[in-house]
Amino acid sequence: MRISAIETRMVRIPLKPERRMVSALGRHDHSDFLLLRLCTDAGIEGVGEATVTPQWSGETVWGAKALIDRVLAPLLLGRDPRDIDDIDRTMARRVVGNWFARAAVEMACWDVIGRSENRPVFELLGGAVRPLTVKSRFSLGAYPPDVAAERAAERVAAGFDTIKVKVGTDPQEDIERVRAVRAAVGEATTITIDANGGWDFDTALRCVRALEPVGVAWVEQPLPRGEYTRLRRLKERTGCRVLADESCFDLVQAEELITQGCCDALTVYPGKNGGIARARAIAALAEEHGIPCTIGSNLEWDVATAAMMHLVVGTPNMQVERLPGDCLGPSYHEFSVAKDPLPIDGPFTTLPRRPGLGVEVDWDRVAAHVLPD
Questions:
Q1: What CA–CA distances, in Å, run from 195 to 24, 164, 205, 246?
Q2: How many CB atoms lie within 10 A of CB 191?
Q3: Helix axis angle, 228-238 relative to 251-259, nearest 10°?
Q4: I need a surface site. Which of 55, 102, 254, 302 has the fewest CB within 10 A?
Q5: Long-range contacts from 123-126, C-beta under 8 angstroms, 24+ separation
Q6: pLDDT of residue 62
Q7: What is the rounded CA–CA span in Å between residue 338 and residue 99?
Q8: What's the gap between Cα 42 and its chain centre?
Q9: Is 3 in contact with 81 (CB distance < 8 Å)?
C-alpha cells in the first residue's frame, strides 16, 4: 500500500460564545484549523487535523497548508503509510518544528493502518490500558472574577471535579480570579492554574505564594518556555507542583525538564509533539523517571481529539486518573466536522471502538466553512 495523494482543507469554526477562551495568549473566538485527507492506492483513506495557533506553536493554517502541500506531500507520495517511523524520519529530515502540521500527516497514517486492519488505533498501540471513557478537567478562561466564579460553579454542577483556571494576565486579577473560583466551587473541587508562560519569575513567585491558601494542586507553565533554571528555582522556593506544557514539544526538551528537576508532570498530546508516536516516546521517558503525564489540548476538533483519546487509552503513563487532562475540544465549538461526533457528556469523552481513529469527516459540511487561500 502506497500514499497516492494528500489533500488539505483550511477550515474556520467559531467557538460557542460561553466557551470562548481568554488567556495570557489573548482571545480565541474561532478556530482556524487544517483538515487532511491521505489517500492510498489501495482505496483506503485516513484523516488528520492540524490544530495550529500562531501565538502558541508559531504555526498558521495557511503556513501548514503550504508546508504539507508543497514540501511534505511531494516527499511522501509513493511511501508506505504503515511505516510510521519512515514517515516521521522523512518529515523530520526536511522540516524543523511545525509539530502540528507533521502530526496531521502522522495521525492520518495511523488512521489508514487501523482501517486497513479493521482495528482501532489504541489496539495498534498495544491495547487499552484504561476504559474508553475518560474524565476531563474543565479549562476556564481568564474571565473577570465574577464571571469565572459563575462559570466554574456551573461546570461543577455539570459533573466536573477539576477546574483549570487561566492566569498569566494582570497579576492581581489572576489572584482574585482564582480566589473567586475557589469560593464558588468549595474545597472538594480540585483547582489547577495555567499561566501559558505569561508570568515572569518575580510575578510567578508572588502569585503562587498569594494563592497558597487557595489550595492550587498544579501550576501549569508559570514561566515562558525555555526558562528551565528559573522554573526549577520557582519549584524550590514555593514548593508548588509544576506541570510543564509549552516547554515540552520534543524528547530533548522533556529530558531537560526531567533531569534538571524543573517539573513534577508533563503535558503531552499528538499535535504539540508531532504525532502519536512521538507523544508516546515522551510519556515512556517520563515513566522511566517516575514523572506522570497528562493530555493537553488546543481545543481540537473530533479528528485530533480522537487521536488524543487513542494516546490516552493506549499509553500507561497518561495518568489522567491522577491528573485529569482535556479531551473536550469539540464541545467548545458551534458544530462538529464529524458525521458521528465523539460522544461528550459533561466531563466525559468516550472513544468509539471503530477502526482507525474512528472518525468520519463530513466533507460536505467542511466545504461550507473552508477558508480562502
A1: 7, 10, 12, 10
A2: 22
A3: 40
A4: 55
A5: 123/314, 124/314, 125/276, 125/280, 125/310, 125/311, 125/314, 125/315, 126/314
A6: 97
A7: 23
A8: 31
A9: yes
Indicate the pTM of the whole model. 0.97
Calpha distance 190→192 (Å, rounded): 7
Rounded Cα–Cα distance for residues 194 and 222 (Å): 7
The cell for 303 is: 479528528
Note the pLDDT tens digit of each residue in 337-351.
999 999 999 999 999
As a whole number of angstroms, the distance between CA 163 and CA 161 comes to: 7
Rg for the chain (alpha carbons), in Å? 20
The H or E element that residue 99 is part of is: helix 99-117
Residue 163 banded pLDDT, cuts 50, 70, 90: very high
305 close to 326: Cβ distance less than 8 angstroms:
no
Q: Where are the alpha helices (DSSP H) in 55-98?
A: 61-67, 73-76, 84-94
Rounded Cα–Cα distance for residues 76 and 62 (Å): 20
Report all structural domains of the chain as residue ranges with CATH numbers, in order of start.
Answer: 3-118+362-367 (3.30.390.10), 124-350 (3.20.20.120)
Going by the DSSP 8-state scheme, the letter that residue 318 receives in this structure is B
List the grid coordinates of 322.
Answer: 491522577
Contact present, 199 and 142 (Cβ < 8 Å): no
Q: What pLDDT score does 24 carry?
A: 77
Q: Could you tell me if 234 and 223 are in contact, meaning their C-beta atoms sit under 8 angstroms apart?
A: yes
- The SS3 of residue 139 is strand
Express each pLDDT in 2-26 by its tens digit: 999 999 999 999 999 888 888 878 8
**Averaged pLDDT, 325-332:** 96
β-bridge pairing 242-244 and 216-220: parallel
Percent of the chain having pLDDT more than 90? Answer: 95
